Amino acid sequence: MFPQRPEDLEKMMRELGITTEDVIKTAGNPAALKQLLSSATLRMVGPVRGSGPSDGLSGIVNALEQAKARFQAEKTMLPIPFVAKPRTQLLVSFEFNRRQVLRQENEHAAQMKQTIIGTEIHVSKIPLEQLERVSLQQMDVRKTHKGKYLLCRIITFPVRMFSVHVLVEDVNGDACLMELYNYPGTIGASPQLIEALFPVGSILAIREPTLKSAAHGGDPLLRVDCPSNVVWLEHDDKKLLGVKWDTGDQVHHSPRLPSTEEEWKKQGNSHYQNGWNIPAAVSYSRGLQRFPASSVLKLNRAMAYLQLKYYGAALADCEAVLENKDLSESLKPKALYRAAQALYGMGRWDEAERNFTDMAKKYPAEAPACKPWIQKCTDRRSEASQGKYDWVAAYKVAQGEGSRMDLANFTGPIQIAALPSRGGGRGIVAKRDIKFGELLVVSKAFVFCSKDDFAKPETFSILNLITNCMDVGYGAINPTQAAERIAGDPQAANALNQLYAGPTYEPPPSEYSVAPPGKVNVSRLLRFDEDVHIGRIQGVLSFNSFTVQSLGPGESMPKDTSRHLDTSALFPLPSLFNHSCSPNAHWYCLKDIMIVRATCDIPAGNEVFLSYGGAGDSYLSRAKESCLARLLGSCNCFLCTRDRQAGESVCKQREKIASKISSCTTILAVRSHIKKLDETFKGYPTADRYAMFTANMKLANISQSSSNLDEVLRTLFKCLEYLGLKVTDTSFRGALPLSSRDSLPVKLATIGGSRTGPLLGPLGVDACIAIRNTFGGALNDKARAAKWLKGTVWLHDKCYGGGKELFSERYPDILD
Ligand SMILES: C[S@@+](CC[C@H](N)C(=O)[O-])C[C@H]1O[C@@H](n2cnc3c(N)ncnc32)[C@H](O)[C@@H]1O
């Protein structure tokens, strides 16, 4: 990042139009330096764009190999002593680069931000009190200093690239670049918010610090991956007794600290009004350290905590306020209202409802505000206890702005079971006989980040050394979001720790018992009560995240099967489902809510599988789906096991035929290849012949363009069977007996019906619609069109719930 050679620095300063004297005058004074640089002319700027997945597969493989080789080589190199660079030189080049980054952000569209995950990360588990102080001069590069802590303070304005970059100095005045990864509050943060999060002059103790050599031979840097390794110290902290900073007591122009309760409140409120909830909560907390009895600071912090969804902490603040016997009448309703909101957020609907109801009675002026909450409590309760959701309303909300939904979690007739044959050792089984279409799980994402969380567009790519994949999208910042959850909800760490983190970590406990959210006392946000083990979190996210797209208006066949969708999310209970390429349940999302339904009847005790994605036609193409294959090792689902038994040559043959079919242009050619393809599936249940579905769909499309409607219909009927359905009325000519008009033309297949094709929802509904349109259009057979419409709505309801109403929302042109 920084110019290394003195001549480069000089050249840069010439470009800036500043002299060495100017720099010396501003040394140790970031604000003066900032002013100096703002009067300078910058010309050396050009956008630095990342190379994304467009590099192609070989590019990714090369990048992965290079990264691995670099880390491997680093490991074999001996640590070298840290040599301090002249402070002035560091300050100038840092400021130059900071301004360059800010300017690029202003002038250019989204920059590709890149990072690598899966390298060794040290999480300090030793409390600061037990660590011994170390200075930069005493440290080595390429080394983690176990048993030590570095006392340092921030001496420049920070800047956010992928991580937050800032210069720090130690007590001796030696300076070093610090890169802080995964820091709560930094997702999508503006430069101003980053400055509020990392004020100049802040004193930090870095537990068990690591100095790294920069990737491209630059200056060594202090790299902090786990935010809990950073401990913020107040100026009057006892750790600072007797500490003398070589460059003076104060870093020049560090912001003046508020001194009264009112000033702390003002600072917090100003952050809050900007929507900067973490800096707001930190300001209120710092004020509370000095004015611990302040109800106003506690109540305002509760407000910030509510925004951050730290409900346990918000409740703790409100309850502490309500215990105050001298609480003013004006604050009482505020405290009650916020406590009730916190209870609601924690899913304690009964208590929340009681609080809102009591409050409405006691403070009639607040009744209008409480009324909608009371209704919400009733809705959430029936969702959580009976699985009764208004899917139409939820779907409509999901089509609107924002990325979050307000729905209760629900667990249907399933339970967690020990299944030692799978990585992680657990899976989900049916508690009782489950019926096709039954709702199994509704789960709110634990970690979820989408483009809506960014004021300005940003694009990310991660080279994931855990899965050997290049991930593109918001999954890159999910560890930051996980850290943000843990920062204000220590119980969240417990939930994450119980998920499978891959073979390099201790297996999770076979019991999955996530404590219900309770009261958590977060007395000082960003003072982590739990160590945030980012390495393990990266493993959990790599092995459990889903790439999600919210359910939207119905379309015809999915055209883009690319895995590179934007949003990646972690859902707690759904993480425990194992994968099958031929699953018996399917999942879809409404924004940050995942919904799981049975796609066939599942007998009690049977395992329930989801398809994680990658519904490839053949064993070989599924195995090539790099991410899926790498996550599973070798997939041990029924279909892959069956394919392995069939043998490699059969699988190769199948793939060859399937690929020929995709390029066929005549009905005859497709038909003849379909016959050959079918022969490769001898002995397979119908619903496990997914390649036959794709091949028949191709035949249907070609037949459509040649107006061979009999063939179109026959083929579409077959398509449904390959998804695990049975067409009960295969007639497509003559009068439809009145008696059969009301019956469904399709039902769940019973033979081989213990599984269904992986995309029964979208594909099955679309195939039914195609049949209905063929009858209603060219054939002008209104009776059969009506019958097939009924069948379509039935299937849609089984897959997505919401009856005819939801169907008509998603397919407004079809129900006329
Ligand atoms: C999201 S976890 C599933 C839950 C996990 N079994 C647990 O106990 O937490 C994904 C991991 O489960 C294992 N797994 C799931 N489905 C599998 C399959 N079809 N074949 C092999 N391993 C599978 C793999 O180790 C995979 O990385």
Describe the structure concisely.
By secondary structure, this protein is an alpha+beta fold. Strands 3, 5, 6, 7, 8, 9, 10, 11, 12 and 13 form a ten-stranded mixed sheet that branches. The chain binds S-adenosylmethionine.
Model regions low in confidence, pLDDT < 50 over at least 5 residues: 1-10, 12-28, 36-56, 556-564
Average pLDDT: 86
Structural class: alpha+beta
User: What Rg is obtained from the alpha carbons, in whole angstroms?
Assistant: 30 Å
What is the CA-CA span between the terminal residues? 61 Å
Give the CATH class of the largest domain.
Answer: Mainly Beta
CATH H level of the largest domain: which superfamily? SET domain
Q: What is the overall silhouette? A: globular
What composes the largest sheet? 10 strands, mixed
Number of helices: 27
Pfam family, one: SET
InterPro entries: Gramillin-biosynth_MTr, SET_dom, SET_dom_sf, TPR-like_helical_dom_sf
Domain SET: 412-613
Protein name: SET domain-containing protein
Describe how the helices and strands are arranged.
Layout: H1 6-16, H2 20-26, H3 30-38, H4 56-76, E1 80-81, H5 87-107, E2 112-117, E3 132-134, E4 140-141, E5 143-144, E6 148-154, E7 159-160, E8 164-170, E9 175-180, H6 191-197, E10 203-207, E11 210-212, E12 221-224, E13 230-233, H7 261-273, H8 277-290, H9 295-307, H10 311-322, H11 332-345, H12 349-362, H13 367-386, H14 391-398, E14 410-411, E15 414-418, E16 426-430, E17 439-444, E18 447-449, E19 459-464, E20 469-472, H15 478-488, H16 490-497, H17 534-544, E21 546-548, E22 567-570, E23 578-579, E24 585-590, E25 593-598, E26 607-610, H18 619-624, H19 626-632, H20 638-646, H21 648-663, H22 667-679, H23 690-705, H24 709-722, E27 725-727, E28 746-748, H25 760-776, H26 782-800, H27 803-810
Parallel strand pairs: 2-19, 3-6, 9-12, 23-26
Antiparallel strand pairs: 1-4, 5-11, 6-8, 6-10, 7-8, 8-9, 10-13, 11-12, 14-17, 15-16, 16-26, 17-25, 18-22, 19-20, 21-22, 24-25, 27-28
Helix pairs in contact: 3-5, 7-8, 7-9, 8-9, 9-10, 9-11, 10-11, 11-12, 12-13, 15-16, 15-17, 20-21, 21-22, 21-23, 22-23, 23-24, 24-25, 25-26, 26-27
The protein binds S-adenosylmethionine.
S-adenosylmethionine binds at residues 422-427, 500, 508, 543-544, 575-576, 578-580, 631-633, 635-637.
